[in-house]
């Protein structure tokens, strides 16, 4: 264990206790070159690391599962497992990269790609990137795949960049669930998963893109933010995901990187039943919220007050946004009781909930809080069990385009519609945004859809987060990705 001299013995012992056995190497030793990377992740797997769930982003951040295309810094599609593509009406033809093998030694073929995409397109529920999308894939020879949608879709390449549409070997689909162990194409092979505790990956020396500098990765899932920060301070971890704001000041500034995120901390209000079925009471809740005090108090200034659902990570949004019209006037809460749910995995959220409780009480609401780990509360939130739910939500995580997020969260048939919103005007605006070609016209349509959502007060955006990542002083090449798709890459290693 590498303990910096500045760390007191009690602090070092506390970190070791919190992470006892945390990074004992569970994977193979590799070639003996360099040290394995020890990574502390925030959220444990929720679906056994199935790529059809949000666990897909872990596979992407570990560089073990890959997609046909990737996104560049501007959100445009660039080659990955596919080298080029072209559109013909509702169909897109993708040319596959030569010389790619899966971690089990089998070749990447059109048949393998079709299998993975078909599994995703026919899953129940579908990956949210396919919300409202009827997609089919067919092989054209061994090296070409034709992807067709029911309606002409300008975002097909961006959709196929989602880690939820990763391409895996046939072995991954033999059971009732998708198992990514030993089935990816990336520079690191997933070799072992210990439930929600840990995972191990070894370098895959036959990777098509070259040889990774690190011999492997040892991952520990550490939901407690204080424990993650302690792991960095004590030298127990090389890379720490999502350092809580409250812990950032306790770390050496040289060890942390702050990145503006396309992530909005939003209060979702249940429009289907309960107190917030009344639009005037939704308006009363919105007017009661003091977002600046949350930014200053809970986030210690390391966040931005929200002007809309889309934040400064999408700079074009501010220039296109206009005042929201058509909102209901605020009613009188008159002592009505509401229950707000949130989760502990993001350390700031319980603090936000406590602050909101006071703000809403001041406005006349009676407020109860229910706080659990995310894996234990998500299903209740989606089922409408709460009057309101506080969520830290990525707005361009999947396709690099916010239309997919808006549809997922606010369309009548959206798969992540926590607000239970069913509004014809919103659905119409979302349909327009989704069907508009990429470019300025699409951006304007997206902002119109945002305004339609905000007019309902189904969601109250409070602040836009910045992610704080911790990298040990001897770590080089770690990715600092606003979209949370990359973390350990070919070049990441311990010096």
From TrEMBL:
InterPro entries: Peptide/Ni-bd, SBP_5, SBP_5_dom. This is ABC transporter substrate-binding protein. Residues 78-415 form the Solute-binding protein family domain. Residues 1-28 form the signal peptide. It holds the Pfam family SBP_bac_5. It comes from Streptomyces fimbriatus. Gene3D superfamilies: Dipeptide-binding Protein, Domain 3, Periplasmic binding protein-like II. The keyword Signal applies. Keywords: Signal. CDD domains: PBP2_NikA_DppA_OppA_like_3.
């Amino acid at each position: 264990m590498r303990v910096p001299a500045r760390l007191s013995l009690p602090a070092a012992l506390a970190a070791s206790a919190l992470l006892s056995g945390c990074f004992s190497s569970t994977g193979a030793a590799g070639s003996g070159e360099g040290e394995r990377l020890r990574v502390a992740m925030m959220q444990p797997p929720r679906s056994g690391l199935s790529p059809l769930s949000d666990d897909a982003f872990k596979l992407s951040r570990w560089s073990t599962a890959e997609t046909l295309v990737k996104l560049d810094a501007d959100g445009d599609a660039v080659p990955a497992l596919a080298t080029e593509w072209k559109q013909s009406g509702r169909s897109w033809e993708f040319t596959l990269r030569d010389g790619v093998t899966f971690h089990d030694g089998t070749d990447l073929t059109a048949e393998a790609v079709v299998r993975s995409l078909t599994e995703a397109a026919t899953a129940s529920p579908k990956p949210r990137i396919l919300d409202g999308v009827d997609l089919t894939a067919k092989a054209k020879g061994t090296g070409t795949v034709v992807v067709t949608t029911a309606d002409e879709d300008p975002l097909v390449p961006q959709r196929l960049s989602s880690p939820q549409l990763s391409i895996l070997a046939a072995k991954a689909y033999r059971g009732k669930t998708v198992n990514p162990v030993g089935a990816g194409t990336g520079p690191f092979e997933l070799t072992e998963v210990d439930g929600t505790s840990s995972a191990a990956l070894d370098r895959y020396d036959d990777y098509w893109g070259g040889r990774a500098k690190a011999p492997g990765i040892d991952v520990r899932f550490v939901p407690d933010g204080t424990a993650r920060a302690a792991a960095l301070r004590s030298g127990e971890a090389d890379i720490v995901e999502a350092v809580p704001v409250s812990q950032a000041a306790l770390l050496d500034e040289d060890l942390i990187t702050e990145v503006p995120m396309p992530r909005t901390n939003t209060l979702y209000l249940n429009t289907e039943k309960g107190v917030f079925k009344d639009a005037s009471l939704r308006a009363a809740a919105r007017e009661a919220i003091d977002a600046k005090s949350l930014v200053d108090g809970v986030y210690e200034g390391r966040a931005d007050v929200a002007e809309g659902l889309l934040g400064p990570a999408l700079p074009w949004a501010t220039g296109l946004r206009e005042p929201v019209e058509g909102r209901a006037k605020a009613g009188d809460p008159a002592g009505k009781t509401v229950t707000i749910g949130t989760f502990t995995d993001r350390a700031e959220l319980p603090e936000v909930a406590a602050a909101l409780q006071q703000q809403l009480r001041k406005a006349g609401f009676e407020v109860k809080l229910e706080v659990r780990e995310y894996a234990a509360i998500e299903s209740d939130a989606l089922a409408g069990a709460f009057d309101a739910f506080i969520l830290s939500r990525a707005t361009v995580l999947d396709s690099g385009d916010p239309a997919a997020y808006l549809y997922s969260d606010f369309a009548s048939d959206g798969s992540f519609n926590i607000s239970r919103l069913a509004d014809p005007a919103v659905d119409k605006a979302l349909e327009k945004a989704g069907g508009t070609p990429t470019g300025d016209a699409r951006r304007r349509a997206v902002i119109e859809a945002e305004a339609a959502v905000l007019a309902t007060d189904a969601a109250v955006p409070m602040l836009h987060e910045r992610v704080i990542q911790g990298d040990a002083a001897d770590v080089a090449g770690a990715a600092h990705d606003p979209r949370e798709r990359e973390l350990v890459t070919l070049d990441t290693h311990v010096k």
